[in-house]
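The instructor's notes for this session suggest beginning with a concrete chain rather than abstract definitions. Hand out the sequence below and ask the class to guess, before any prediction is shown, which regions might be ordered.
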Amino acid sequence: MTDEIHTVKLADNEREHLVGESPGERQDSATDNEGALFDAYSQAVVRAVETVAPSVVRIDVAKTRQTSRGPREGGGSGSGFIISSDGLMLTNSHVVHGPAAVHVILSDGRRPDAVLIGEDPESDLAVMRVYAPNLAPLKFADSSLLRVGQLAIAIGSPYGFEASVTAGVVSALGRSLPEGRNVLSTGT
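After discussion, reveal the predicted structure:
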């Protein structure tokens, strides 16, 4: 064992000095720290999913399109989330634009009636009303507090798979699309 002093950064402006730690002990310590970081990351994602999942809905749509052989039935699916206890729901315009029927499936399996209230295809947003009691609205955060590098978690029902989760980071803020819309970019 040597009498080296090693400094480990614990938090902003706080340091711990370890005396007499061998290189093997440093490796074990680094592995333990890495494991603790991954565990903390996993716990953050799990907590977010447990908090938000009751607000996430699956949307199944049926569409009829004209082909050279006549009308054809088709379908698709997407995600949305409850934004008020009285049933307002936010989704993407491309999910609900022009379907013959829209079916909403809540996280608890209920299939309430729902109607499209309005949509904006340019921003790809749509608002629907879901007619059901005991809804769990999502709480919005202050997007002005976002920082590049923060954890970004997406929860939804892509392709009809309920409660799918992915995580990444906010990779950019304030980017504009050619139409002039301000967006954020994630690395998920």
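Then share the key points. Confidence is low (pLDDT under 50) at residues 1-20. The CA atoms of residues 61 and 76 lie 5 Å apart.
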